[in-house]
Amino acid sequence: MSDTIEKTPCLIIGSGPAGYTAAIYAARADLKPLMYQGLQPGGQLTTTTEVENYPGYPEGTMGPEMMEDFKKQAERFHSDVRWGMITEIDLSKRPFIAKADDGKTIEAETVIISTGATAKWLGLPSEAEYNGYGVSACATCDGYFYKGKDVVVVGGGDTAAEEATYLAKLCRKVYLVHRRDELRASKAMQKRVFNTKNIEVIWNHVPKEITGETEGFAKKVTGVTLTNVLNGEEMKVPVDGFFVAIGHKPNTELFKGQLTMDETGYLITKPDSTATEIPGVFAAGDVQDHVYRQAVTAAGTGCMAALEAERFLASIED
What is the mean pLDDT of the chain? Predict the structure, then answer.
């Protein structure tokens, strides 16, 4: 392990659309950004297949390829993009001191946090097998692929109710599967679910297995087996898509006790800004956005964070 100490005007923690966009803007502003990509370089988009709703890709693109394009663009402007992750950081004073898993210590004048959020999954082996091939955690991202088809949404909170009503506009039938006999969603969201004719709520059931077909490298979901939690009886539901809507977990463990978070762990930034309460520390993308959670909005906040970091550095030099 090395004891090397490096200094950078801008440390970017995490990658994905927010981090890579921040790196592009920061590099073009001559901030010489240093990025540690984290455990999942490219973020959640690297686990998806087709992306059709990002501007500039008229024929669509694959999520991993899109993130590779972002990375190459950041590196084109001499961003220092590295494998690995930041394991410790002290935000109590500036320059901020961070330690990486490669043994390096970094002194940073500004920090952009783009560690994202991770979708919560059920933990079924078949869920992982068909992830990206009929299994999704984002109706807004993937709902279009199931136009006129039947799908299952799993969950009982506002996220599940919102995903189900969104999908109902596109799909022939939406089965909302919940393990209890009443939804946890707000009354307003429940009303929307119950007033949507092509949503059928299946109470007191949990998914046991997702079934599908594999032809060569092509996979597709064909149905789901549900278990009744009251009597153990099973039922099979033929569907084309399986949406998990039990929430997301922001990747903010590293910053607990140092930055203000909401009750679920999302970083709180100032209105119309990516600035946290600590001057020089900014948060972009899904780590601070529990509302939209889209690649294009993450990229937008990545741009904002880099511009704000540049302005912050200029202000302390004056």
Answer: 94
